[in-house]
Specification:
InterPro entries: ExbD. By secondary structure, this protein is of the alpha/beta class. The chain folds into two domains: 6-41, no CATH class; 59-149, no CATH class. It is built from five helices and seven strands, in the order H-H-E-E-E-E-H-H-E-H-E-E. The chain is elongated, with a radius of gyration of 29 Å.
Length: 151
């Protein structure tokens, strides 16, 4: 029986000078498995969000995905809409009504479907409630609060 290909290279004595010929079928199989694995685990969903360095986010164990939305930052000193200052926290806390006029004027013309609130963990819920109420009066339908995920 005549031997050919790879088996000759494996059984050739050391120093015989035989050429090693890898089986391409096995290598292609491995590459296809790696490619399928990487494609299966690759995610194009989600929104890249950079938290404000002046905000300390609350912690949560939720797995809910974020959807594109208008960003409102509630810092310990100020409320910002898409990084633009709108009103101070002192003015927010001083107002008796739930509707924040300055924030309402900013949001009224935007007509966003969703809102992502970046709130510092030290902010009282009363202020967050005022922001959410004002946003809903301005036409925002969905709210999400950005949190730090705990594993």
């Amino acid at each position: 029986m005549k031997r050919t290909g790879i088996s000759q290279a494996r059984t050739a004595p050391a120093g015989a000078g035989g050429a090693f010929r890898p089986q391409l079928t096995s290598l292609i199989d491995v590459m296809v498995i790696l490619l399928v694995f990487l494609l299966k685990n690759f995610s194009v969903d989600g929104q890249l969000i950079t938290p404000d360095p002046k905000i300390s986010l609350p912690q949560s164990t939720t797995d809910a995905e974020l959807h594109p939305a208008l960003n409102i930052h509630i810092r310990p000193d100020m409320i910002l809409v898409e990084q633009e200052p709108v009103m101070s926290i002192e003015k927010t806390g001083a107002e008796e009504e739930l509707l924040l006029a300055d924030l309402y004027d900013e949001l009224r013309d935007r007509r966003e479907e969703g809102l992502l609130i970046h709130a510092d963990r030290t902010i009282p819920f009363e202020i967050i409630k005022k922001v959410m109420h004002t946003s809903s009066k301005a036409g925002v339908e969905h709210f999400s609060i950005l949190v730090e995920q705990v594993e």
